[in-house]
Amino acid sequence: MHAMNNNQRAAKAMNKSCGTPLVPFAMLYPFIEPQLDKDRAMQLRGLYAGFRNRRISKVEFVRRVRTIVGDHMIKMAVYKFQTTRADKKLNRAHILKSNQQAPNAMNRPSRKKVPFAMLYPVLEPRLDKDSAMQLLGQYARFMV
User: Fold this and answer.
1) 78-92: per-residue pLDDT in tens?
2) What is the mean pLDDT of residues 123-130?
3) Were 84 and a residue from 2, 79, 100, 117 both cysteine, which residue would form a disulfide, CB within 3.0 to 4.6 Å?
4) Whole domain around residue 91: which residue ranges?
5) How many other C-beta atoms can be found within 10 angstroms of the C-beta atom of residue 47?
6) Does residue 3 sit within a domain?
């Protein structure tokens, strides 16, 4: 039987308990970095470089990222990543569908639809934190 070391056990337990899907850090970084002050952004860059160069373990990397960034910001980054990815899929499907429609259908006026992932960054600065979180919650329920 394959024996697990302490780091592997901790990583497995952390993956089970986190409740959010696993997303590579490189995909989350663009959503996290703009929210950080310069010092924390530099810390995060250095930490990620150490992880990529295998100077620190995955478990240690995740623990330190959570300390620097916080669980809430990580969850928001995962959420934004997922909504961006979902909106891109919807846009591709819409383009394919519109290309398959009859030519006269393309001449009809239509409403422009703006993906939530593009609209939210414009709305967020204009909303108080509670309203922004409420809007994200409503959107999450709509997407389920």
Assistant:
1) 888 888 876 666 666
2) 78
3) 117
4) 22-102+113-143
5) 20
6) no
